[in-house]
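Hi again,

Forgot to attach this to my earlier email, sorry! This is the prediction with pyridoxal-5'-phosphate bound. I've pasted everything inline since the attachment limit keeps bouncing my files.
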Amino acid sequence: MLPHPTPGASNGARRLAIALSSTDMSNDSSVGRLAGALRERAAALQPGDQLPSSRAIVSRYGVSPVTVGRALARLGAEGTVVTEPGRGTFVASRRAPLEDVAWQTVALGDARVDTTHLRRLLEVPGPGKLVLSSGYLADDLQPTRFLATATARAARRPGAWGRVPPTGLPELRAAFAATIGVDAGDVTVVAGGQSGLSAAFRALSPPRMPVLLEAPTYMGAVSAAQAADLRPVPVPTDVDGLRPDLLAEAFARTGAGLVYTQPTFANPTGTVLAAHRRQEVLDVVRAAGAFLVEDDWARHLVIDGVAPPPLLRDDRDGHVVYLTSLTKPVAPSLRVGALVARGPAADRLAAVRRAEDLFISRLLQEVAVELFGSPAWPRHLTALRAALRERRDTLVAGIRRDLPGVTVTPVPAGGLHVWVRLPPGVDDVELADRAARRDVVVEPGRPYFVAEPPAPHLRLTYAAATPADLTEATRRLAGELP
Ligand SMILES: Cc1ncc(COP(=O)(O)O)c(C=O)c1O
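C-alpha coordinates for the complex follow:
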Protein backbone atom coordinates (compact mmCIF):
# COMPACT_ATOMS: atom_id res chain seq x y z
CA MET A 1 0.00 0.00 0.00
CA LEU A 2 1.09 3.58 -0.56
CA PRO A 3 -1.28 5.72 1.48
CA HIS A 4 1.14 8.51 2.42
CA PRO A 5 4.24 10.02 0.91
CA THR A 6 7.39 8.97 2.72
CA PRO A 7 9.26 11.90 4.31
CA GLY A 8 12.09 11.55 1.78
CA ALA A 9 9.70 11.52 -1.13
CA SER A 10 7.67 14.50 -0.09
CA ASN A 11 10.42 16.98 -1.02
CA GLY A 12 10.61 15.37 -4.43
CA ALA A 13 6.84 15.47 -4.68
CA ARG A 14 6.86 19.15 -3.72
CA ARG A 15 9.55 19.97 -6.30
CA LEU A 16 7.62 18.04 -8.93
CA ALA A 17 4.40 19.80 -7.99
CA ILE A 18 6.08 23.16 -8.52
CA ALA A 19 7.53 22.05 -11.87
CA LEU A 20 4.19 20.70 -13.00
CA SER A 21 2.16 23.65 -11.89
CA SER A 22 4.29 25.98 -14.01
CA THR A 23 3.22 24.19 -17.19
CA ASP A 24 0.01 23.22 -18.92
CA MET A 25 -1.28 20.45 -16.71
CA SER A 26 -2.12 18.01 -19.43
CA ASN A 27 0.69 18.70 -21.84
CA ASP A 28 3.06 15.97 -22.83
CA SER A 29 5.96 17.05 -20.62
CA SER A 30 3.79 17.26 -17.45
CA VAL A 31 2.47 13.79 -18.21
CA GLY A 32 6.03 12.55 -18.73
CA ARG A 33 7.27 14.05 -15.46
CA LEU A 34 4.35 12.70 -13.44
CA ALA A 35 4.75 9.28 -15.07
CA GLY A 36 8.44 9.37 -14.10
CA ALA A 37 7.62 10.17 -10.47
CA LEU A 38 4.97 7.45 -10.26
CA ARG A 39 7.30 4.97 -11.94
CA GLU A 40 9.85 5.60 -9.20
CA ARG A 41 7.19 5.08 -6.54
CA ALA A 42 6.07 1.83 -8.17
CA ALA A 43 9.67 0.58 -8.31
CA ALA A 44 9.94 0.97 -4.54
CA LEU A 45 6.81 -1.16 -3.97
CA GLN A 46 6.00 -4.84 -4.36
CA PRO A 47 3.86 -6.33 -7.17
CA GLY A 48 0.21 -6.12 -6.15
CA ASP A 49 0.69 -3.06 -3.91
CA GLN A 50 -1.82 -0.32 -4.54
CA LEU A 51 -0.89 3.15 -5.76
CA PRO A 52 -2.65 6.22 -4.30
CA SER A 53 -6.03 7.05 -5.80
CA SER A 54 -6.19 9.44 -8.76
CA ARG A 55 -7.71 12.06 -6.47
CA ALA A 56 -4.81 11.71 -4.02
CA ILE A 57 -2.30 12.07 -6.87
CA VAL A 58 -4.12 15.17 -8.14
CA SER A 59 -3.88 16.90 -4.79
CA ARG A 60 -0.39 15.69 -3.95
CA TYR A 61 1.26 16.72 -7.21
CA GLY A 62 -0.97 19.68 -8.07
CA VAL A 63 -1.91 18.28 -11.47
CA SER A 64 -5.17 17.90 -13.36
CA PRO A 65 -7.14 14.62 -13.43
CA VAL A 66 -6.44 14.48 -17.19
CA THR A 67 -2.70 14.50 -16.53
CA VAL A 68 -3.07 11.75 -13.91
CA GLY A 69 -5.19 9.63 -16.26
CA ARG A 70 -2.66 9.97 -19.08
CA ALA A 71 0.35 9.27 -16.83
CA LEU A 72 -1.30 6.13 -15.42
CA ALA A 73 -2.27 5.03 -18.92
CA ARG A 74 1.36 5.43 -19.98
CA LEU A 75 2.55 3.31 -17.06
CA GLY A 76 -0.16 0.76 -17.83
CA ALA A 77 0.93 0.55 -21.46
CA GLU A 78 4.54 -0.11 -20.47
CA GLY A 79 3.47 -2.83 -18.00
CA THR A 80 4.46 -1.02 -14.79
CA VAL A 81 0.95 -0.84 -13.30
CA VAL A 82 -2.43 -2.46 -13.79
CA THR A 83 -5.64 -0.47 -13.35
CA GLU A 84 -8.70 -2.40 -12.24
CA PRO A 85 -11.89 -0.39 -12.82
CA GLY A 86 -13.65 0.35 -9.52
CA ARG A 87 -10.72 -0.98 -7.43
CA GLY A 88 -7.68 1.13 -8.15
CA THR A 89 -4.21 0.99 -9.65
CA PHE A 90 -1.71 -1.69 -8.60
CA VAL A 91 1.95 -2.39 -9.23
CA ALA A 92 2.06 -5.01 -11.99
CA SER A 93 3.81 -8.31 -11.43
CA ARG A 94 7.32 -8.08 -12.84
CA ARG A 95 7.61 -10.22 -15.90
CA ALA A 96 10.67 -12.41 -16.10
CA PRO A 97 12.92 -11.26 -18.95
CA LEU A 98 12.87 -13.50 -22.02
CA GLU A 99 15.45 -16.23 -21.61
CA ASP A 100 17.04 -16.61 -25.02
CA VAL A 101 16.00 -14.65 -28.10
CA ALA A 102 19.18 -15.39 -30.08
CA TRP A 103 17.15 -17.70 -32.38
CA GLN A 104 15.32 -14.56 -33.65
CA THR A 105 18.56 -13.16 -35.06
CA VAL A 106 18.89 -16.22 -37.27
CA ALA A 107 15.20 -16.30 -38.18
CA LEU A 108 15.03 -12.58 -39.08
CA GLY A 109 18.17 -12.45 -41.26
CA ASP A 110 19.46 -9.07 -42.55
CA ALA A 111 17.96 -5.87 -41.15
CA ARG A 112 16.84 -4.37 -44.45
CA VAL A 113 15.28 -1.20 -43.10
CA ASP A 114 17.41 1.31 -41.23
CA THR A 115 15.22 3.86 -39.46
CA THR A 116 17.79 5.01 -36.90
CA HIS A 117 17.79 8.57 -38.16
CA LEU A 118 14.08 8.67 -38.81
CA ARG A 119 13.44 7.51 -35.25
CA ARG A 120 15.60 10.32 -33.88
CA LEU A 121 13.78 12.82 -36.07
CA LEU A 122 10.44 11.63 -34.69
CA GLU A 123 11.47 11.93 -31.03
CA VAL A 124 9.58 14.66 -29.22
CA PRO A 125 12.25 16.86 -27.57
CA GLY A 126 11.81 17.45 -23.86
CA PRO A 127 10.99 20.83 -22.31
CA GLY A 128 13.56 23.61 -22.43
CA LYS A 129 15.05 22.52 -25.78
CA LEU A 130 15.57 24.89 -28.68
CA VAL A 131 14.12 22.77 -31.47
CA LEU A 132 15.58 23.32 -34.95
CA SER A 133 14.91 19.76 -35.99
CA SER A 134 11.40 18.73 -36.90
CA GLY A 135 9.42 17.92 -39.98
CA TYR A 136 6.34 19.73 -38.69
CA LEU A 137 5.01 23.12 -37.62
CA ALA A 138 5.49 24.28 -34.03
CA ASP A 139 2.37 23.87 -31.90
CA ASP A 140 1.65 27.60 -32.03
CA LEU A 141 1.54 27.54 -35.84
CA GLN A 142 -1.00 24.70 -36.01
CA PRO A 143 -4.67 25.75 -36.36
CA THR A 144 -5.66 23.70 -33.31
CA ARG A 145 -8.77 25.65 -32.40
CA PHE A 146 -10.14 25.28 -35.90
CA LEU A 147 -9.23 21.59 -35.90
CA ALA A 148 -11.15 21.10 -32.65
CA THR A 149 -14.29 22.67 -34.13
CA ALA A 150 -13.90 20.82 -37.42
CA THR A 151 -13.45 17.51 -35.62
CA ALA A 152 -16.57 18.05 -33.52
CA ARG A 153 -18.57 18.91 -36.64
CA ALA A 154 -17.10 15.99 -38.59
CA ALA A 155 -17.90 13.52 -35.82
CA ARG A 156 -21.58 14.50 -35.97
CA ARG A 157 -21.91 13.89 -39.71
CA PRO A 158 -24.05 10.90 -40.67
CA GLY A 159 -21.81 7.92 -41.29
CA ALA A 160 -18.72 9.63 -39.86
CA TRP A 161 -17.71 6.44 -38.07
CA GLY A 162 -18.63 4.14 -40.91
CA ARG A 163 -16.83 2.72 -43.87
CA VAL A 164 -15.55 4.66 -46.81
CA PRO A 165 -14.51 3.60 -50.33
CA PRO A 166 -10.85 2.44 -50.34
CA THR A 167 -9.87 5.30 -52.65
CA GLY A 168 -11.30 7.83 -50.20
CA LEU A 169 -14.30 9.99 -49.47
CA PRO A 170 -15.56 11.38 -52.81
CA GLU A 171 -15.81 14.97 -51.43
CA LEU A 172 -12.21 14.80 -50.21
CA ARG A 173 -10.89 13.38 -53.48
CA ALA A 174 -12.66 16.23 -55.25
CA ALA A 175 -11.17 18.81 -52.87
CA PHE A 176 -7.63 17.50 -53.38
CA ALA A 177 -8.23 17.29 -57.14
CA ALA A 178 -9.26 20.95 -57.22
CA THR A 179 -6.11 22.13 -55.39
CA ILE A 180 -3.81 19.97 -57.54
CA GLY A 181 -5.61 20.59 -60.85
CA VAL A 182 -6.45 16.97 -61.77
CA ASP A 183 -9.55 14.75 -62.07
CA ALA A 184 -11.03 13.52 -58.78
CA GLY A 185 -11.07 9.99 -60.22
CA ASP A 186 -7.24 9.98 -60.29
CA VAL A 187 -6.91 10.76 -56.56
CA THR A 188 -6.47 8.14 -53.83
CA VAL A 189 -6.59 9.30 -50.21
CA VAL A 190 -3.63 8.07 -48.12
CA ALA A 191 -2.65 8.31 -44.46
CA GLY A 192 -0.09 11.11 -44.92
CA GLY A 193 3.01 11.39 -47.06
CA GLN A 194 4.97 8.49 -45.61
CA SER A 195 2.17 6.05 -46.22
CA GLY A 196 1.76 7.37 -49.77
CA LEU A 197 5.49 6.98 -50.43
CA SER A 198 5.50 3.49 -49.09
CA ALA A 199 2.52 2.49 -51.26
CA ALA A 200 4.08 4.11 -54.35
CA PHE A 201 7.40 2.32 -53.91
CA ARG A 202 5.69 -1.04 -53.41
CA ALA A 203 3.28 -0.60 -56.30
CA LEU A 204 5.51 0.94 -58.97
CA SER A 205 8.58 -1.26 -58.92
CA PRO A 206 9.22 -4.98 -58.62
CA PRO A 207 11.22 -5.83 -55.48
CA ARG A 208 15.02 -5.92 -55.42
CA MET A 209 15.28 -3.24 -58.12
CA PRO A 210 17.25 0.02 -57.78
CA VAL A 211 15.28 3.21 -57.10
CA LEU A 212 16.82 6.60 -57.88
CA LEU A 213 16.69 9.21 -55.12
CA GLU A 214 17.92 12.79 -55.11
CA ALA A 215 21.10 13.37 -53.12
CA PRO A 216 20.59 14.67 -50.51
CA THR A 217 17.06 13.49 -49.85
CA TYR A 218 14.42 12.95 -47.16
CA MET A 219 15.66 10.03 -45.06
CA GLY A 220 12.10 8.65 -44.75
CA ALA A 221 12.14 8.05 -48.51
CA VAL A 222 15.26 5.93 -48.09
CA SER A 223 13.59 3.89 -45.33
CA ALA A 224 10.39 3.48 -47.37
CA ALA A 225 12.45 2.27 -50.35
CA GLN A 226 14.28 -0.23 -48.16
CA ALA A 227 10.99 -1.43 -46.68
CA ALA A 228 9.71 -2.03 -50.23
CA ASP A 229 12.84 -4.14 -50.80
CA LEU A 230 14.29 -1.60 -53.25
CA ARG A 231 17.92 -0.49 -53.46
CA PRO A 232 18.35 3.32 -53.12
CA VAL A 233 20.77 4.85 -55.64
CA PRO A 234 21.66 8.57 -55.29
CA VAL A 235 21.45 11.11 -58.12
CA PRO A 236 23.13 14.48 -57.37
CA THR A 237 21.25 17.78 -57.21
CA ASP A 238 22.49 21.37 -57.35
CA VAL A 239 20.90 24.76 -56.68
CA ASP A 240 18.52 24.12 -59.62
CA GLY A 241 17.37 20.76 -58.26
CA LEU A 242 17.77 17.31 -59.81
CA ARG A 243 20.45 17.11 -62.54
CA PRO A 244 18.85 15.69 -65.72
CA ASP A 245 22.22 14.67 -67.24
CA LEU A 246 23.11 12.51 -64.23
CA LEU A 247 19.54 11.23 -63.97
CA ALA A 248 19.81 9.90 -67.54
CA GLU A 249 23.14 8.30 -66.74
CA ALA A 250 21.78 6.71 -63.55
CA PHE A 251 18.83 5.18 -65.43
CA ALA A 252 21.20 3.83 -68.07
CA ARG A 253 23.64 2.33 -65.55
CA THR A 254 21.16 0.84 -63.10
CA GLY A 255 18.13 -0.11 -65.18
CA ALA A 256 15.93 1.50 -62.49
CA GLY A 257 12.28 2.03 -63.34
CA LEU A 258 11.55 4.62 -60.66
CA VAL A 259 12.87 7.98 -59.45
CA TYR A 260 11.75 9.87 -56.32
CA THR A 261 12.04 13.66 -56.33
CA GLN A 262 10.79 16.79 -54.56
CA PRO A 263 10.68 19.49 -57.26
CA THR A 264 9.27 22.19 -54.96
CA PHE A 265 11.17 23.27 -51.79
CA ALA A 266 13.00 19.97 -51.44
CA ASN A 267 13.71 18.58 -47.99
CA PRO A 268 16.47 19.14 -46.91
CA THR A 269 17.90 21.65 -49.44
CA GLY A 270 14.91 23.94 -50.04
CA THR A 271 15.65 23.99 -53.77
CA VAL A 272 13.06 24.26 -56.54
CA LEU A 273 13.53 22.40 -59.82
CA ALA A 274 14.48 25.18 -62.29
CA ALA A 275 11.98 25.97 -65.05
CA HIS A 276 14.48 24.99 -67.76
CA ARG A 277 14.98 21.56 -66.19
CA ARG A 278 11.34 20.52 -65.83
CA GLN A 279 10.87 19.29 -69.40
CA GLU A 280 14.36 17.79 -69.48
CA VAL A 281 13.66 15.69 -66.38
CA LEU A 282 10.34 14.51 -67.81
CA ASP A 283 12.01 13.65 -71.14
CA VAL A 284 14.67 11.58 -69.38
CA VAL A 285 12.00 9.72 -67.40
CA ARG A 286 9.95 9.09 -70.53
CA ALA A 287 13.02 7.83 -72.44
CA ALA A 288 13.75 5.41 -69.59
CA GLY A 289 10.15 4.16 -69.58
CA ALA A 290 10.14 4.91 -65.85
CA PHE A 291 7.90 6.37 -63.16
CA LEU A 292 8.68 9.61 -61.33
CA VAL A 293 7.26 9.99 -57.81
CA GLU A 294 6.73 13.72 -57.19
CA ASP A 295 6.61 14.40 -53.43
CA ASP A 296 4.88 17.79 -53.25
CA TRP A 297 4.81 18.04 -49.46
CA ALA A 298 5.54 21.80 -49.27
CA ARG A 299 3.01 23.22 -51.76
CA HIS A 300 1.17 25.09 -49.02
CA LEU A 301 4.36 26.31 -47.34
CA VAL A 302 5.30 29.03 -49.84
CA ILE A 303 7.01 32.11 -48.38
CA ASP A 304 8.19 34.12 -51.42
CA GLY A 305 6.22 34.44 -54.66
CA VAL A 306 4.20 31.50 -55.93
CA ALA A 307 5.14 27.84 -56.12
CA PRO A 308 5.60 26.46 -59.65
CA PRO A 309 2.82 24.10 -60.77
CA PRO A 310 3.27 20.40 -60.00
CA LEU A 311 5.38 18.51 -62.58
CA LEU A 312 2.37 16.23 -62.84
CA ARG A 313 0.58 18.87 -64.91
CA ASP A 314 3.24 18.64 -67.67
CA ASP A 315 2.99 14.84 -67.84
CA ARG A 316 0.95 13.52 -70.78
CA ASP A 317 1.66 9.78 -70.52
CA GLY A 318 1.18 8.78 -66.90
CA HIS A 319 4.86 8.79 -65.89
CA VAL A 320 4.37 11.07 -62.86
CA VAL A 321 2.79 9.76 -59.66
CA TYR A 322 2.07 12.67 -57.37
CA LEU A 323 1.95 12.83 -53.58
CA THR A 324 0.85 15.53 -51.15
CA SER A 325 -0.11 15.60 -47.46
CA LEU A 326 -1.96 17.77 -44.95
CA THR A 327 0.40 16.93 -42.09
CA LYS A 328 2.85 19.66 -43.05
CA PRO A 329 0.67 22.75 -43.50
CA VAL A 330 -1.80 21.77 -40.76
CA ALA A 331 -0.69 19.36 -38.01
CA PRO A 332 1.26 16.09 -37.85
CA SER A 333 -1.70 14.05 -36.68
CA LEU A 334 -4.00 15.16 -39.48
CA ARG A 335 -2.64 12.11 -41.25
CA VAL A 336 -4.41 12.59 -44.54
CA GLY A 337 -2.77 12.95 -47.93
CA ALA A 338 -3.39 12.21 -51.59
CA LEU A 339 -1.73 10.12 -54.27
CA VAL A 340 -2.47 10.88 -57.90
CA ALA A 341 -1.80 8.28 -60.58
CA ARG A 342 -3.20 7.62 -64.06
CA GLY A 343 -3.53 4.43 -66.07
CA PRO A 344 -2.81 0.90 -64.80
CA ALA A 345 -0.47 2.38 -62.16
CA ALA A 346 -3.53 3.80 -60.42
CA ASP A 347 -5.03 0.30 -60.16
CA ARG A 348 -1.78 -1.11 -58.81
CA LEU A 349 -1.64 1.63 -56.20
CA ALA A 350 -5.24 1.08 -55.20
CA ALA A 351 -4.56 -2.65 -54.81
CA VAL A 352 -1.50 -2.06 -52.61
CA ARG A 353 -3.39 0.47 -50.51
CA ARG A 354 -6.27 -1.93 -49.98
CA ALA A 355 -3.90 -4.73 -48.98
CA GLU A 356 -2.08 -2.45 -46.53
CA ASP A 357 -4.91 -0.93 -44.53
CA LEU A 358 -8.23 -1.23 -46.39
CA PHE A 359 -9.12 2.47 -46.06
CA ILE A 360 -8.23 5.62 -44.14
CA SER A 361 -10.24 6.63 -41.04
CA ARG A 362 -13.40 8.25 -42.32
CA LEU A 363 -13.45 10.67 -39.40
CA LEU A 364 -10.09 12.14 -40.37
CA GLN A 365 -11.23 12.40 -43.97
CA GLU A 366 -14.36 14.24 -42.84
CA VAL A 367 -12.16 16.66 -40.85
CA ALA A 368 -10.11 17.31 -43.99
CA VAL A 369 -13.33 17.98 -45.95
CA GLU A 370 -14.33 20.52 -43.27
CA LEU A 371 -10.91 22.13 -43.56
CA PHE A 372 -10.94 22.54 -47.33
CA GLY A 373 -14.50 23.93 -47.25
CA SER A 374 -13.89 26.52 -44.54
CA PRO A 375 -12.90 30.18 -44.91
CA ALA A 376 -10.47 29.43 -42.05
CA TRP A 377 -8.29 27.42 -44.47
CA PRO A 378 -7.12 30.30 -46.70
CA ARG A 379 -6.86 32.49 -43.58
CA HIS A 380 -4.59 29.91 -41.96
CA LEU A 381 -2.38 29.70 -45.05
CA THR A 382 -2.00 33.48 -45.20
CA ALA A 383 -1.08 33.72 -41.52
CA LEU A 384 1.26 30.76 -41.86
CA ARG A 385 3.11 32.36 -44.73
CA ALA A 386 3.79 35.49 -42.68
CA ALA A 387 4.89 33.47 -39.63
CA LEU A 388 7.20 31.24 -41.67
CA ARG A 389 8.71 34.28 -43.35
CA GLU A 390 9.47 35.87 -39.98
CA ARG A 391 11.03 32.66 -38.64
CA ARG A 392 13.04 31.91 -41.78
CA ASP A 393 14.39 35.48 -41.90
CA THR A 394 15.23 35.41 -38.19
CA LEU A 395 17.13 32.15 -38.60
CA VAL A 396 19.00 33.26 -41.72
CA ALA A 397 19.93 36.58 -40.04
CA GLY A 398 21.15 34.65 -36.98
CA ILE A 399 23.28 32.34 -39.13
CA ARG A 400 24.82 35.28 -40.95
CA ARG A 401 25.42 37.17 -37.70
CA ASP A 402 26.66 34.36 -35.44
CA LEU A 403 28.10 31.69 -37.71
CA PRO A 404 30.75 33.05 -40.07
CA GLY A 405 32.02 30.35 -42.41
CA VAL A 406 28.60 28.68 -42.50
CA THR A 407 26.85 29.10 -45.88
CA VAL A 408 23.11 29.06 -46.46
CA THR A 409 22.61 27.10 -49.70
CA PRO A 410 20.32 28.81 -50.84
CA VAL A 411 17.78 30.82 -48.77
CA PRO A 412 14.63 28.73 -49.34
CA ALA A 413 11.55 30.42 -50.80
CA GLY A 414 9.32 27.93 -48.99
CA GLY A 415 9.23 24.75 -46.92
CA LEU A 416 10.35 24.37 -43.33
CA HIS A 417 14.13 24.07 -43.41
CA VAL A 418 17.39 25.87 -44.14
CA TRP A 419 20.27 23.71 -45.42
CA VAL A 420 23.66 25.08 -44.42
CA ARG A 421 27.15 24.04 -45.47
CA LEU A 422 29.68 23.91 -42.64
CA PRO A 423 33.33 24.92 -42.94
CA PRO A 424 35.52 22.11 -44.34
CA GLY A 425 36.70 19.65 -41.72
CA VAL A 426 33.80 20.19 -39.30
CA ASP A 427 32.14 16.90 -38.33
CA ASP A 428 28.40 17.57 -38.65
CA VAL A 429 27.33 14.59 -36.52
CA GLU A 430 29.66 15.61 -33.68
CA LEU A 431 28.54 19.22 -33.98
CA ALA A 432 24.88 18.17 -33.67
CA ASP A 433 25.78 16.11 -30.57
CA ARG A 434 27.61 19.04 -28.99
CA ALA A 435 24.69 21.35 -29.81
CA ALA A 436 22.30 18.88 -28.15
CA ARG A 437 24.34 19.12 -24.96
CA ARG A 438 23.59 22.86 -25.03
CA ASP A 439 19.89 22.05 -25.57
CA VAL A 440 19.93 23.01 -29.25
CA VAL A 441 18.41 20.23 -31.37
CA VAL A 442 19.66 20.29 -34.98
CA GLU A 443 19.96 17.70 -37.73
CA PRO A 444 23.37 16.67 -39.07
CA GLY A 445 23.48 16.49 -42.87
CA ARG A 446 25.07 13.05 -43.18
CA PRO A 447 21.91 10.91 -42.84
CA TYR A 448 20.38 12.77 -45.79
CA PHE A 449 22.93 11.19 -48.14
CA VAL A 450 22.66 7.58 -49.27
CA ALA A 451 26.38 7.60 -50.17
CA GLU A 452 29.36 9.78 -49.20
CA PRO A 453 28.35 13.39 -48.45
CA PRO A 454 30.27 15.96 -50.55
CA ALA A 455 30.61 18.35 -47.56
CA PRO A 456 29.42 18.66 -43.95
CA HIS A 457 25.95 20.19 -43.59
CA LEU A 458 23.25 20.89 -41.03
CA ARG A 459 19.52 21.01 -41.62
CA LEU A 460 18.05 23.78 -39.50
CA THR A 461 14.27 23.92 -39.21
CA TYR A 462 12.78 27.39 -38.71
CA ALA A 463 9.16 26.25 -38.37
CA ALA A 464 9.41 24.43 -35.05
CA ALA A 465 10.77 27.20 -32.79
CA THR A 466 9.82 30.76 -31.90
CA PRO A 467 11.88 33.64 -33.37
CA ALA A 468 13.40 34.26 -29.93
CA ASP A 469 14.47 30.60 -29.65
CA LEU A 470 15.94 30.69 -33.17
CA THR A 471 18.05 33.70 -32.23
CA GLU A 472 19.26 32.04 -29.05
CA ALA A 473 19.98 28.82 -30.95
CA THR A 474 22.42 30.39 -33.44
CA ARG A 475 24.12 32.20 -30.55
CA ARG A 476 24.68 28.87 -28.78
CA LEU A 477 25.76 27.13 -31.99
CA ALA A 478 28.43 29.81 -32.46
CA GLY A 479 30.10 28.57 -29.28
CA GLU A 480 30.41 25.08 -30.78
CA LEU A 481 31.98 26.00 -34.12
CA PRO A 482 35.77 26.25 -34.50
C1 LIG B 1 9.77 15.31 -47.93
C2 LIG B 1 8.85 14.57 -47.02
N1 LIG B 1 7.96 13.73 -47.54
C3 LIG B 1 7.10 13.04 -46.77
C4 LIG B 1 7.13 13.16 -45.40
C5 LIG B 1 6.15 12.36 -44.58
O1 LIG B 1 5.26 13.18 -43.94
P1 LIG B 1 3.87 12.70 -43.33
O2 LIG B 1 3.81 11.21 -43.43
O3 LIG B 1 3.88 13.17 -41.92
O4 LIG B 1 2.80 13.34 -44.15
C6 LIG B 1 8.05 14.01 -44.81
C7 LIG B 1 8.11 14.16 -43.33
O5 LIG B 1 9.01 14.74 -42.76
C8 LIG B 1 8.93 14.75 -45.64
O6 LIG B 1 9.82 15.60 -45.12
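The chain has a mean pLDDT of 91. Residues 135, 192-194, 218, 220, 262, 267, 295, 297, 325, 327, 332, 337 surround pyridoxal-5'-phosphate (CB under 6 Å).

That should be everything now.

G.
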